[in-house]
Amino acid sequence: MPDDCQFCRIAARTHPAAIVFEDGRALAFLDNRPLFPGHCLLIPKAHRETLSDLPPADIGPLMAVAQTLSRAMEDGLGAEGSFVAINNRVSQSVPHLHIHVVPRKRKDGLRGFFWPRGKYASEEEMESVRAKLAASMEHASVSRL
After folding, report:
1. What residues contact residue 131 under an 8 Å CB cut-off, 6+ apart?
2. Does any domain span residue 80?
3. Predicted TM-score of the model (pTM)
4. Pair 99, 42: CB distance under 8 Å
5. CB within 8 A of 104, min separation 6: which ones?
6. What pLDDT, in 10s, does the model give residues 23-58?
7. In terms of residue numbers, what domain contains 57?
8. Which end of the chain lies in a sparser environment, N or C, as judged by fewer CB atoms within 10 Å?
9. 139 in a domain, yes or no?
10. What is the per-residue pLDDT for 113?
11. Quick check: is 26 in a domain?
12. What's the CA gap between 70 and 11, in Å, rounded?
C-alpha cells in the first residue's frame, strides 16, 4: 500500500469514508463530490493503479460488485438506471483503480459522456485505427485468458 494513496488509506480504515459495501477484495464508498446522491466509488482493496494492473481473476468479482451496486441504486434509491465508468490515468484523480457507479434518472441533466465526441475523418482512418487495435489485441494478455 503506497503511503500517499488516499483509497488505500480508506481500505485500511485510516481515512474516513461513507462505506456502503465491503468484502474480502473490494470496497465501495460514497464519492465526496457526487454527480448525484448515491454516486459510489468501487475499489479493489489491493492497490492497483489502472484496470490493466488488475489481475484477470479479480476482474469478474469486481464487476459483479459493480453490477450489484448498480441494482441496489435502483432498488434502494429509486434510480431508473446507472452510469458505470472507469478512468485510467487520464482524469483519474486518485491513482488507484476505481469504478464510478452513479444512479441515474431520466432528464437528470447528465448528458451522455463528459467529453466531446467526434467522427473519423474517413473510412480509411477508421479502418487504420481498427486494424491497429485488432493487431494489438492478438498480442494482448486478454488473448491468453
Report:
1. none
2. yes
3. 0.84
4. yes
5. 36, 79, 80, 81, 82, 83, 110
6. 999 999 999 889 899 999 999 999 999 999 999 999
7. 6-118
8. C
9. no
10. 61
11. yes
12. 21
